[in-house]
């Protein structure tokens, strides 16, 4: 019999929860006590994801984004959390620890963009891990296989992220060789790109002033969508579960995928 705590321990071995950022709430969201033989892996825990998990008889959802992020004042009828508990479905999240850890979101994103000589960038915190002080870096940087223009790289990024078209970018006005990535909401790190010799920065979302800074300072900034830049890592998360859990079925769902469109 596999338990929620055993699944959590497996995730902790691969993406240590002690390295999550201070504001985060990764970990066990709910433990309903049932034995686990079927797990749904998703980016978020939405009503659609809970309904899907219940329809296939899953006892656990492992998500990237926590369904409980801030202290709960009430549980509302037909909210994802209420539906989950009513169906007896447990939940674990692996959020910023999965962003930061080796083999997580940003390693996967860098690999998807075919970056070479990948190293860590964008320091976020220092944590004590088993008595030693450790630096955490949330982003990754590396070199493209060959130089591209900003327009070529934007098109390449869209293709690498499964042809998504709901993205925007500003051109830095120079050829692109060195690229940094930060999945999700990492636009704030554009200010560190110049000191690291970055030609282009790919993230999920960026604020208006961050886009202006990038363009004014010769950096091509691509806001490729929060979902698109983190969705690529779901298979890696599922593979970790599959490798460590015998007799447990692991199913990746994308029923929470937002609709993309062009005018």
Offer a quick outline of the entry.
With 263 residues, the protein is an alpha/beta fold. The chain has 9 helices and 11 strands.
Please describe the structure with a list of short key phrases separated by commas or semicolons.
263 residues, alpha/beta, Udp-n-acetylmuramoylalanyl-d-glutamate--2,6- Diaminopimelate Ligase, Chain: A, domain 1, 2 domains, six-stranded mixed β-sheet, five-stranded mixed β-sheet, 9 helices
Largest sheet: 6 strands, mixed
Report how far the terminal alpha carbons are from each other. 51 Å
Q: What is the third-level CATH name, the topology of the largest domain?
A: Udp-n-acetylmuramoylalanyl-d-glutamate--2,6- Diaminopimelate Ligase, Chain: A, domain 1
Mean pLDDT: 93
**DSSP helix count?**
9
Low-confidence stretches: none
Account of the 3D structure:
It is built from 9 helices and 11 strands. The protein folds into 2 domains: 4-94 and 233-252, NIF3 (NGG1p interacting factor 3)-like (Udp-n-acetylmuramoylalanyl-d-glutamate--2,6- Diaminopimelate Ligase, Chain: A, domain 1); 105-230, NIF3 (NGG1p interacting factor 3)-like (Udp-n-acetylmuramoylalanyl-d-glutamate--2,6- Diaminopimelate Ligase, Chain: A, domain 1, 3-Layer(aba) Sandwich). The chain has a 6-stranded mixed beta sheet, with helices on both faces. A 5-stranded mixed beta sheet has the order 1-4-3-2-11, sandwiched between helices. Helix 2 packs parallel to helix 3 (80-86). The model has no long low-confidence stretch (mean pLDDT 93). It has 263 residues and is of the alpha/beta class. It is 29% helix and 27% strand. The protein starts with a helix and ends in an 11-residue tail after the last strand.
